[in-house]
Q: What sequence folds into this?
């Protein structure tokens, strides 16, 4: 549920057309054999599938680098007493120390699991939660704080701060309407405010929280309908704007965290973004209502020089394969790029592994519905 209001409308319509299940069914895990990966500090990764709204079909997969086994639907077997499975709409996934955090948006919770077994450790109850990020032994959760519906009467969102050892809520602070992704840089937390529930009255600022005092110290004017937020190696923050899908296009901006102001802009659409080393990888699948379709682009940016590099960063053959690019992650050791394909949003998606150096597709794999977020698992020792 990470697209803006057109996707929300699509899901709401879909939920009315789909009959509610009388019995909740939790899928059992199943495995496929994929290529093994060369030894590195990464043991594998989890993939969170969003699942369709009102269907409790969020699910968790795992790809083991050493064995090459790809296992789907891990959560249900590890947590048999969780009758509704992982829940309704998996929106974000993060690994911190020995714990895995899954944001289940429409279920109003963050599932905290053991990173090795995926057994539930705790549940953080957060109204309309969206994304997580971590720093200094704390997990920060962004939340809309309102029902999943459109309208101009929605309250401001908030950021909740939890201790990652006992899961006590340490603090909570109000930010803009419908806050999305966050990133930590220079002792501050940067939050993208979207206002996505009330088009055309979008938000246009990044809220800045000083982590020591946990107070909002600034609102940086950027562009309307903000979404993605990532920090680069220099401490700059990359922020995406989804635009209004009509006259204002999606763009990507750079914020200097020393000055707390915008210092650069890239006139490229950005629906997803990840930074690995000195390169930002950008997927642009921006919806254009005037065309009634998506425009899809793949771009790379040198974060040291802020230079837009040649594009796309995958082969044309793979570009043609992918119906709707969605999730994106890069293995910092191998350089392999992982892209998920949401397809038609109502049936199993796909995961593609691509080696940029060799310009070759390593494998493709069927996932759950709407594969979205990837969290790499690092080998021990790790520290909470």
A:
């Amino acid at each position: 549920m990470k697209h803006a209001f057109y996707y929300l409308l699509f899901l709401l319509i879909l939920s009315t057309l789909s009959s509610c299940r009388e019995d909740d069914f939790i899928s059992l895990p199943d495995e496929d054999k994929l290529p093994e990966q060369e030894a590195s500090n990464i043991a594998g990764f989890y993939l969170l599938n969003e699942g369709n709204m009102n269907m409790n079909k969020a699910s968790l997969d795992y790809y083991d680098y050493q064995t090459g086994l790809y296992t789907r639907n891990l959560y249900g077997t590890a947590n048999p007493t969780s009758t509704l499975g992982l829940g309704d709409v998996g929106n974000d996934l993060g690994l911190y120390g020995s714990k895995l955090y899954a944001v289940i948006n429409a279920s109003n919770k963050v599932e905290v699991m053991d990173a090795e077994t995926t057994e539930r450790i705790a549940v953080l109850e957060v109204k309309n939660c969206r994304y997580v990020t971590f720093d200094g032994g704390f997990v920060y959760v962004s939340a809309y704080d309102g029902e999943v519906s459109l309208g101009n009467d929605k309250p401001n969102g908030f950021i909740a701060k939890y201790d990652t050892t006992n899961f006590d809520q340490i603090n909570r602070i109000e930010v803009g309407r419908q806050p999305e992704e966050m990133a930590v840089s220079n002792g501050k937390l940067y939050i993208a405010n979207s206002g996505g529930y009330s088009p055309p009255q979008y938000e246009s600022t990044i809220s800045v929280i000083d982590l020591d005092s946990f107070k909002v110290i600034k609102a940086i004017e950027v562009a309307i309908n903000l979404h993605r937020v990532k920090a680069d190696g220099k401490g700059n923050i990359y922020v995406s704007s989804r635009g209004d899908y009509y006259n204002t296009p999606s763009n990507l901006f750079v914020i200097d965290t020393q000055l707390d102001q915008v210092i650069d802009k890239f006139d490229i659409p950005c629906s997803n973004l990840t930074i690995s080393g000195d390169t930002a990888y950008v997927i642009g699948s921006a919806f254009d209502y005037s065309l009634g379709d998506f425009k899809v682009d793949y771009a790379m940016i040198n974060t040291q020089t802020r230079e837009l590099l040649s594009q796309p960063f995958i082969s044309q053959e793979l570009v043609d394969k992918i119906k709707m690019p969605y999730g994106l992650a890069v293995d910092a050791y191998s350089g392999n790029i992982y892209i998920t394909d949401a397809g038609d949003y109502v049936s199993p998606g796909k995961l593609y592994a691509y080696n940029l150096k060799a310009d070759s597709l390593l494998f493709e794999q069927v996932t759950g519905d709407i594969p979205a977020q990837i969290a790499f698992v690092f080998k021990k020792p790790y520290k909470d």
User: Anything to note?
Assistant: Residues 1-26 have pLDDT under 50 and may be disordered. The longest helix spans residues 5-17. The first strand starts at residue 30 and ends at 33. The radius of gyration is 19 Å.
